[in-house]
Design goal:
The structure is a single chain. The protein has helices spanning 10-21, 33-40, 51-60, 70-75, 97-109, 127-142, 149-156, 174-179, 191-205, 225-256, 260-268, 289-302, 308-320, 323-332, 358-368, 380-383, 398-402, 422-428, 443-449, and strands spanning 2-6, 25-29, 64-67, 79-82, 113-119, 158-164, 183-187, 219-223, 339-343, 372-376, 393-394, 407-410, 433-436, 452-454. It is α/β, with parallel strands linked by helices. It has 3 domains: 2-223, Rossmann fold, CATH 3.40.50.720; 232-319, Orthogonal Bundle (N-(1-d-carboxylethyl)-l-norvaline Dehydrogenase, domain 2); 321-454, Rossmann fold (3-Layer(aba) Sandwich), CATH 3.40.50.720. Strands 3-2-1-4-5-6 form a 6-stranded parallel β-sheet, sandwiched between helices. Strand 9 (339-343), helix 15 (358-368) and strand 10 (372-376) form a beta-alpha-beta unit. Helix 1 (10-21) crosses helix 3 and helix 6 (127-142) packs across helix 7. The longest helix is centred in the middle third of the chain and has 32 residues, at 225-256. It is elongated. The protein starts with a strand and ends in a 5-residue tail after the last strand. It binds nicotinamide-adenine-dinucleotide and uridine-5'-diphosphate-glucuronic acid.
Length: 459
Amino acid sequence: MRVCVIGTGYVGLVTGACLAHTGHHVICVDNNEEKVKLMKSGRSPIYEPGLSEIMQKSASEDRLEFTGDLKYGVTNSDILFIAVGTPALPSGDSDTRYVEAVARGIGTHLNKGYKVIVNKSTVPIGSGDWVRMIVLDGLAEREHSDTSGDETAKRLGIEFDVVSNPEFLREGSAVYDTFNPDRIVLGSNGKRALQMMQELYQPIVERKFAEDASMPPVSVVLTDLSSAEMIKYAANAFLATKISFINEIANVCDRVGADVVQVAKGIGLDTRIGTKFLQAGIGWGGSCFPKDVSAMIHTADDYGYDAQLLKAAVDVNKRQRQIAIEKLQHELKILKGKTIGLLGLTFKPDTDDMRDAPALNLIEQLNRLGAKVKAYDPIVSQTGIGQGFTGVVVETDPHRLADGCDALVLVTDWQQFETLDYEKMAKQMINPVIIDGRNFLDREKLEKIGFRYVGIGRS
Ligand code: NAD
Ligand code: UGA
């Protein structure tokens, strides 16, 4: 099928490259010229395992194109994905101006025939109908029409339906998640659109590109627009709440002398609860949980409902971002004049994304308390994206990081951190203290080496 993906960030580029890999013809459009240039040269502007390889393969087989020309993308495709950012406004509501610009642009370039317009971006409930209206406005403007957008479209033989197809991929495993989804959600009132979307995803549904091709087909949830939009927010709100829940339990564990890792295992084995997303730590971050939970609270508020549980999940998370500071103060007493080394900066491993990363809060607070902050991160240290950071010296290797530190804090659970030469690092430090902000390291091994190990909820 002929597909256009507008916005080539973590979601758009992965979606475009994966759909091309399954055999469709995909045009990726972005208004960032630098990005388009980079992608045309076969390189990915983001770090995502496995992405460059499938991008390069599909591009070399002429199934994947990159352009800044929206008109080219719209006129040469039947399915148009909107995958631009929807960051949070200061009010907590979702900033939909990028979606609006793209929807208007699509309207400006629509030609005779039928197209499916897909909201892949995470958008507030009701956005499906709103996008339809903006597209029609764009069309009416182009035609300088006195009549409504609907009538203009009819007169020109232009037909389209809007589909909500929320994305559930995780950064760091985005390609894997796209080929191995738990489910695909499609919301629309248009039967033809739903049929085309099912055809588009057929290879993925049949697990033709899955790690385990013998698994049963992927479940496809066919629903209405608003329910599909709500499914996305509800999923992220649930996952964020689950983490806040285990973080709250961890804080009680710290006080009563229980080990949250054992507790998480013990409750997670109950299949009604499940073991995933029960890793206590220094709080959730990233480009989506914080903004999506806030947007959900905001939407509830718009309808006169006080979303107390979600507000509590956010509050617990805010507090959790302080936990490493409290533990450092407990170990070192005064932080002024001390040097703290951060292992990891990104909001989670296997990504270069720093949006709402807990490390940023830590750096700010440590600076405020008069501590010097150094950091080592496998991706940030390599790519040089840390050059723009203030209040932190980004070191090029873990030993330069440990040198002269009063304590280390493991911020991101990068796999590489499991096997560092901690014995050597301990000798380079003023105090061999480590706060394991993700309960990720081998406590016994570190204590044997001489580290004072402090986890989260593992007193
Ligand atoms: P991103 O910021 O990484 O990428 C957005 C891209 O859109 C950028 O490349 C930008 O240049 C481009 N863009 C902006 N305006 C444009 C325009 N008018 N025309 C063409 N391109 C334009 O965003 P992201 O992280 O990929 O997120 C996109 C959406 O997907 C958001 O709504 C987000 O909530 C949702 N989502 C993200 C993830 C994730 O893991 N990042 C997962 C699921 C859903
Ligand atoms: C999350 C969801 O998992 C995806 O399904 C969704 O598509 C995406 O948001 C989105 O809407 O953008 P992502 O933000 O990439 O994906 O990463 P997660 O693996 O969910 O981690 C989010 C944060 O929670 C990270 O800071 C991570 O360290 C933290 N986390 C995760 C924990 O503290 N404990 C856990 O047990 C799991």
